[in-house]
Each structure stands twice: as C-alpha cells, then as structure tokens.
Design a protein that fits this description.
With about 190 residues, the protein is α/β, with parallel strands linked by helices. It has a single domain, classed as Dihydrofolate Reductase, subunit A (3-Layer(aba) Sandwich). The chain is built from 6 helices and 8 strands. The chain has an 8-stranded mixed sheet with strand order 4-3-2-5-1-6-8-7. The two termini are about 30 Å apart.
Length: about 190
C-alpha cells in the first residue's frame, strides 16, 4: 500500500501562509529530494492554483536558479489530483475529483506506485481527520509570522494523534525539517 505524506512549511506561531516563509536554495533542494519519493500530488483548489501554473512555467522556461529550475522540473513531471467543486479545468497531468475524498484516497493508496504527497491546509486537515495520513514532513521556520492561515486551523480530529519522530535536519537558514510517522491515537 502506498504511503500518504503530508508536507508543509510552518512558522513557530503555527502560520503556514507561503508568502511569509523562507524559500532559499537549500529548502528547495530539501523539497526536491522529497518530490523524488512520490509520484502523485493531492491538493485542494487553492493550493493547486498556488503551484500551477507557477512551477510548470518555470519548468518550461528554466529561467530561475538551479534549485528552482530542478524543483520545477520534478514538480511538473508528477501527476496531480485536485479535490474541487469549482475548478473548471486543469493541466494535462491533473485530474479533478469533485467528491468522495475518503474513497478516492483509499483507492489511490491501493494502486501501485511511490508515495502520495498532500500539500496545503484544507484537504490535508480532512485527510488527517479521516486517519489517512501515514507520514508528516514539517519544516519549522525560524519566524513568527503574526498572522495568516494556521496549521490544521478548524480541523476536527477524532482523537489526539501521537507521532513518532524518525528524522530531523537543521538547515543553514535555521529551518528545522522534521519527519514523523503516524503512531497510535492517544486515548482520552
């Protein structure tokens, strides 16, 4: 069965607004390594529209830094599933799913392939509440954002989840990359 990985940048105060985050060469290289572990992205409309057409355009033009160009090339090559009731069209390697988040993810996890990567806040919050996320990759940024969307804001978890820390890496920027695996729910 394929693993579902949730990855996101988060400030010390819980903000995960991408416009407030550090995005340097080392961080892009870090995420480029993660992208090599997956062959499918799962997004909601908002996150999808933040990523596309921005990264596919860079993949085509190769007009940015080496790390940005490489990240864009890998990102553009990976298939995507977008859960949206309002998105009318998508890139050629993207499929829009209008309903059935749980059933669709269970079906995708049964298919052969590498891991699946979820990004953003809304859809991953639902996936966590449904107990479908197997692994968490947080990059904690050394900033206090002071505002913006918060990690798991409004998520309704059935129980607290215990995660098992399996890897840490401190980047030169002061960001700390954390990798957790799902553990058992904590009773009471």
């Amino acid at each position: 069965m394929r693993n579902l990985i949730y990855a996101i940048n988060v400030a010390l105060d819980g903000c995960c607004d991408h416009t407030k985050m550090i995005a340097d060469e080392e961080l892009l290289e870090h995420y480029g390594r993660l992208l090599r572990e997956v062959d499918l992205f799962v997004y909601g409309r908002k996150t999808y529209q933040l990523m596309v057409p921005y990264w596919p355009d860079i993949a085509k033009s190769q007009s940015e830094t080496k790390a940005e160009n490489e990240f864009a090339r890998i990102f553009d090559s990976i298939n995507k599933v977008v859960f949206s009731k309002s998105l009318e069209s998508a890139e050629t390697n993207t499929r829009i799913v209008r309903s059935g988040l749980r059933d669709e993810i269970l079906k995708l996890k049964q298919q052969p392939g590498k891991s699946i990567l979820a990004g953003g806040v809304n859809v991953p919050s639902q996936l966590i509440a449904l107990d479908l996320v197997d692994e968490y990759r947080f990059v904690v940024q050394p900033i206090l954002a002071g505002g913006g969307t918060r990690l798991l804001d409004g998520a309704s978890l059935p129980d607290r989840l215990r995660l098992k820390l399996v890897e840490t890496k401190t980047l030169a920027s002061g960001c700390v990359a954390l990798r957790y695996l799902k553990s058992a729910p904590i009773a009471g």
